[in-house]
Write a structure and sequence with these properties.
Layout lengths: L4 H6 L7 E4 L3 E5 L7 E7 L14 H17 L7 E3 L15 E5 L4
Antiparallel strand pairs: 1-2, 2-3, 3-5, 4-5
This protein binds adenosine monophosphate and zinc ion.
Length: 108
């Protein structure tokens, strides 16, 4: 997906403040944060939306859910956070590369 904004971030063609990376996942700060901590966790492989996932994506989706809390904790969100996935145009999705929003305020 050469035109996809988040694929460009994966390829390093657009800068982002990366907060986590492994062979399958990338997390970076949202450019328009809605909370003191607001990062997006994406699969490096292009998946359009939760509306297009299939059985072959199950392990990757599970890894995303399991990885998000450890990133959140490293960014000060040990006490908790909000997570969301805007899905489809009617669900408010603007970038059609699957991403988890993780938001929160670090606690003392
Ligand atoms: P949505 O598709 O509605 O879940 O929203 C996409 C999110 O991506 C928004 O919160 C944007 O602020 C964010 N965003 C858009 N462009 C960038 C970028 N270049 N770097 C980081 N975040 C971005
Ligand atoms: Zn993409």
């Amino acid at each position: 997906m050469t035109d996809c904004l988040f694929c460009k971030i994966v390829r390093g063609e657009i800068p982002a403040k990366v907060v986590y990376e492994d062979d399958e996942l990338l997390a970076f700060n949202d450019i328009r944060p809605h909370a003191p901590v607001h990062f997006l966790l994406i699969p490096k492989r292009h998946i359009e939306s939760l509306l297009t996932v299939n059985e072959a994506d199950q392990a990757l989706l599970g890894k995303m859910l399991a990885t998000a809390p450890s990133i959140a904790k490293q960014l000060g969100l040990q006490a908790g956070f909000k997570m969301g996935v805007n899905t489809g145009a009617a669900g408010g999705q603007e970038v059609f590369h699957l991403h988890l929003h993780v938001l929160g305020t670090p606690q003392e």
